[in-house]
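Aim 2, interim progress. The first record below pairs a target sequence with its C-alpha cells.
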Amino acid sequence: MSQVAKIELTEELKRHFGFSTFKGNQEPIIRNVLAGNDTFVLMPTGGGKSLCYQLPALLLEGTAIIISPLIALMKNQVDSMRSFSMDDGVAHFLNSSLTKTEIIKVKENIINGVTKLLYVAPESLTKEENIEFLKRIKISFYAIDEAHCISEWGHDFRPEYRRIRPIVNEIGRAPIIALTATATPKVQHDIQKNLGMLEARVYKSSFNRPNLYYEVRHKVNATKELIKFIKNNLGKSGIIYCLSRRKVEELAETLQVNGIKALPYHAGMDSATRTRNQDMFLMEEVDVIVATIAFGMGIDKPDVRFVIHYDIPKSLEGYYQETGRAGRDGGEGKCITFYSYNDIQKLEKFMQGKPVAEQEIGKQLLLETVTYAESSVCRRKQLLHYFGEDYPEENCENCDNCLNPKEKFEGKDYVVTALQAVLDVKEKFKAEHIADVLAGNATSGVKSYNHHKIEIFGKGKQEDKKFWNAVLRQALIAKFLNKDIENYGLLKLSDEGKEFMISPSSFMLTKDHDYDQVDNDANMKNLSGTSTVDPGLFASLKDPRKKISKKLNLPPFVIFQDPSLEDMAIQYPVTMDEMKNIAGVGTGKAAKYGKEFIELIRKYVDENEIERPQDMVVKSVVNKSGIKVYIIQSIDRKMPLEDIADAKDLTMPELLTEIEAIINAGTKLNFNYYINEVLDEEQQDDLYLYFREAETESIDAAIEELGEDEYSEEQIRLMRIKFISEIGH
C-alpha cells in the first residue's frame, strides 16, 4: 500500500477524468479506500459519489465489484467509465440482460486484468456460477451503491441487499465502501450493522442544497396549478412524480393537449419506449417527464429546473432523493409538492395485507412525511434535522415557510409540559401517543397502558392532538428530544431537554398549516366553494340561461348546470374554443347555446377591464382517458353497469359520476337496456316528467319531491343522466 499512499491524487484525477480539483469529501474518502479501510459515504445527489469508487478502482490492483440495484443505472455507469478510457473492457456489468457469448467476453477481460470495475446486481451476485467465478479473481474492494436499499427503514428497501455480507464472506473478504444519497441516523446504523462495518470511517457531506426552493401546496385544482406553473417556466426541464402508473399516463396526456412537451415514464411500459422517452428528455426533445419513482436514479442531467410531486411521497428519504434531481449544476431548482391528507389515507390502505412489521415501518415513514408537509417550520431545517444535521439559521430565505412565515407565539410552558409527558410515560412511547395523552384523548392505546389515569393526562386538553404533535416536532428540532435509533420513533429527553426543564427560557413556536382534508377531485366537482368565482358575472349568466330555457321550454339546468356557469365566471371564455373547455360544456353544448354567453362575457370583460386567467384554462382529455373509453365501449356492448363498475374497481355512485362527466363533455350514451331492467315504463315517465318541469337538477330536491320510499338515489341519477343526454345535447 505504500506506493498507493504516495500517489498524487489530483494528477490521477486529471489524467483519468479531466477534473482539476476534488469536490467536498472526495479526496479523503478515496484515500481511505486506497488504504484498505471500510468506508461509509453519505453524500447528497450531485455530490460526486461515483468518483469515490471509480478512481480507487482504476488505481488499485484487481477488480472492484460494484453492487448496484438497477440495470439501467449499471449501463449508464459503464458507458460513462468507457468514455474516459481507451479500452471498453475497463468496465463491465454482469446481469441477466447479457447473452452467453457476452458473459464469456466479460469473464475473459476480468481474468486478463483489463476490467477494473465490474457492476453486478445483488441477484446476480447470489448465483452459484458467479460466486465460483469471483472466488478465482483478485477483488480490490466491494462498493455498495444505493446502500439505503439494505435497510427496511430505507425508502427503497430490497430484501436481497441484506444477503450481501454473507456472500462477500463466501467469495472472499475485501474492504467495503457503502454509498447512499439518503440515510437517516436510523438507516445509517442499520446499513453498517448489516454489512458488519460498524467501525467503518464515516464521511458525511452536508445535506443542505441552498439552491433548492421547497414548497408544499394544498392539493386543490392541482392539474390547473401544475399547467400554470409549467407555462410560467416554458422551455425549462422538469420532472413530475406520481405514485400510480395510471396517473402518470393521464397527466402526461393532459400536459400534451395543453401544449406542453411531456412524456410518461414508468415500469409498466416496454423497455424500448421507456428508454426512448428517457433519452428524449436527456436530449431536450421534451421538457417534462411525468414518472413514477422508477425515473431518475443515476440520470446525470444537471439542469433539471423543477421537480414536482403531484402525489405526496411515501417517505421523506424518497422525497429528498427525488427533489435532489433538481438543480444539480447549482442553478435554480424548484421543488413543489401537492399535499392532501386524503393521499396519505390512500397510501395507508395500500399497506393493508402486508406483513405487520412492514406496515408499522410504512406508517412511521408516512407520519414523517405528514409532519414535513403540515409543519410551518423552515422546510430546510426540518429536512436536515431528519438526516441528523443541524441547520443553525432561523430563516433559509428559500422555502415557502420562510418566505411566508406564520405567526409565532411564546411556547415555553407548552414545551415544558410536553417534555414532562415524555418522562411520565417512561420515555417508551412515540409522539402520537404522547400527543393523545396531553390532549386528553382516552384512545384504546392510551387506556391499554393506563395512561388515562396518570397526572399528566389531559394537562393540555385546551389544545388538540394536532397542536401537541407540532410542539413535540419543534422540541425534536430544538434537540430537547431524541428519537431512539434502535426503537424508531420512541421519544427520549436529551441533556438539552433536561436542562430546559430545570431552567426554561423563552421558546417561540409556530402553528402548523391547517390543510383541509378535501381531495382535488371534490374541489374540481364543487367549484362553488372557490373564492375566484366572479359573483357579478355569475349572476349575469343566469339571464341568458333563463331566456333560452323559456324559449325551448326546458329546465335551466339542461342548458348549463350551475358548475358550468361558475367555471365561466372563473375562466371568462370569449371564443368558441374556450367555451368548449368549460366544465360540463363540450363541443355540442358550446355550438348549441354558447354564442349568447360568449357575447355577454366578452362585453363584461371589456367593460370591467378584466385580466383573464388564460393560463388556467385546461383542455380536457376526458374522452381519451382509458377508464372513460372502457365505459363507452362497454355501454355500446350493453354490458350491465354493475359489471362495468366491478371491472374498474368503482362503486356504483363513482361509475355514475364518470358517466355524467362523459355526457357533460358532449358524448351521447344509450343505456336504456339497463334502465329498462331497474325501472318500469311508468316509473321512467314519472321521473322524466319531473326533470322536464324541475327548476334544479339537485338529486336531494328530487328525493324530497318524489319521496325516498318511491325511488332510490341511483334510480333518480340514472334518469337524470338519460334526460340530460337526450334533451340537453
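The second target in this work package is listed in the same format:
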Amino acid sequence: MSLKQLIECVPNFSEGRDLSIIKQITDEIESVDGVQLLDVDPGKATNRTVVTFVGEPEPVIEAAFLAIKKASEVIDMSKHQGEHPRMGATDVCPLIPISNISMEETVEYARKLARKAGSELDIPFYLYESAAMRPERRNLATVRAGEYEALPEKLKQAKWKPDFGPAIFNPRAGATVIGARDFLIAYNVNLNTNSVRRANSVAFDVREKGRVKRSGHPITGKILRNKKGDPLRQAGKCKSVKAIGWYIEEYGLAQISMNLTNINQTPLHVAFEECRKSANRRGLRVTGSELVGLVPKKVMLDAGKYFLEKQQRSTGVSENELIHIAIKSLGLDELGAFDPQKKIIEYLLDNEESHPLVNLKANALADLTASESPAPGGGSISAYVGALGAALGTMVANLSAQKRGWEDDIPLFSSAAEKGQLLKQDLLHLVDEDTKAFNKIMDAVRMPKTTDQEKSERLAAMENATKYAIEVPLKVMRTSFSCFEFLSEMAKIGNPNSVSDAGVGALCVRTAVYGAFLNVQINCKDLSDAKFKAKALKEGEKLLEKAMKAEERILKQVDKVIKKS
C-alpha cells in the first residue's frame, strides 16, 4: 500500500479587515478536490490573514496557485497599511511536509508552484528557506527587507532579480515569497510558579540562543563581549527552539512559551524533558504543557514511544495507546481537554466515510457481510483476516517484551511489534479498499452505453476498474505474506506460553493470501488485457505457493515448542 503524502500550506494574505475579500480567496482554495481548509485567522491590527490548508501535494499547489491569483485580483497593495512586515498581496506562502514526504520532495513542489505562478501571473516570486535557490535568500526577513515600498527600486537591482516571474514592479500585487520549511509548533510548558523571572531562567536554559554571558553574578554581573562589542552567549540545550517565560493570569501560573521551528532537530518530547530537567534543578516542577494549534501525528507517536521506552515497555502498541501515553506524559490535558481528533492534522483530514467497514464493530461487520449485499465480500474479509494474523503476532511480541527476565530483549520484541502494527494498519486499510474496488466496477457497469463513444468509454472504465480490483487483492497477498517473517520469529523466540497465538496468526495470514488469490482469479476472468492478466496470475500463484510453505514451517515450529513445554 502506498501511504498518502500530505503537505500543509500556510499562505499569509495582506488583508485582515475585509472578511468578504478573504472569503473570495478561501473559496478558491476550497474549490480544489483533495484539499481541506483547516484554519482562517484574520488580524485587524496587522491587516493580515493566515490561512492553513492541507492535502496531497498536487491539489495543494493547485489551491495555492488559485489563492495567489485571486489575492492579486482582490487586494490592492498600494492602499495597504498594517503592523506586520509585508511585500505582496500574498506575502508569503510556505509548504510544510506533514507525513510520508521528505523536505527535498516538498522543495520541488514549492519550486513547481513558483514556476507555474511566475509564468502565468505578472508577479515577481522569490524562494526562501529550504526552497531557496540562492543561500542569501534563505532568510525571509532578508528577502522582505524594505517591504512593499522598496520593491520599485529593489527590482531594478540584478541581485534582486526574482527567481520566477518578471522583474517588474506590480503596484497592485507586489511580490510573493514561496518556500518550504519545517513544521513550526507553538508549545507552552507549565510551571508550579507565578514567577516570570524563574520561568525565563528555564527558557534561557532551553532555547537555542541561550543567555548572555556575564562575569560574576549570572543576573547582575557585567556582560561579556567579543572584540566587535557583541555580547557573548551561552547556548541553550535545544536547537531550533525559541523560548521565553511569561505569566498567564487565566491559568494562574507561569509558562515557558516556545516555538519549535525544526521538530527533527528538537522533537516535542525533547523540549519538554529539557524544561523538566531545568525546572527541577531550580527547585521548580513542570506540571503539564499546552499545544497551541495543530500537530502532525508523528510528533505524538514519537513522544509516546519515547515515554514507553523510558518505562522499559514495548513501543509496538496501537496508535491510540501511543497517543494516550503522550498526552498523559506531557500533561497536555492539565489546562483543558485534549482531543486528538481536533489537534492532530491527519485526524482532522480523516473521516469515517473513508473507511466505513473498519469503523464497524465486529458483530456489525459480520452482519453486513452476511447480508444480501455483494460487498463486503471475500476480498475485504481476506484483508481483515490478514490484519488479525498480524495482530496476533504483534500480541506475542508485546507479551514477550513484558516477560520477567527477558528485559535485555525488549528492543528486539519492541521492533517486531512495531512491524506488526504497521502490517496490521496496512491490511485494515485494504479491507475498505477492496470494497471500493468492487464499487468502481459497479460504477462502470452503470455508465450509459447508447452511443458508440459512450460504449467505448464504458468499456475502458470497466477495464480500468477490473485492473484495480485485481491490484487490491494482490496488495493483500503481498502484505499478508510479509507477516510470515515476524510470525516465524515470534514462534521461535517469543514467549512460549503464547506460541499457539503465533500459530493461529500464521493460519490467518495463509487464509488471507489464499482468499485474496481467489479474488485475483475471479476478477481476471473479466479482463481483456492478456499481458496484465498473465502477470497478475503468475505473481499470485507464486505468493500462494510460498505462503503455504511458510505456514507449514511455522506450524511445525509451534508444535515443537508446545510439545517441548
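Residues 97 and 105 are 9 Å apart (CA to CA). This observation will shape the mutagenesis plan for the next reporting period.
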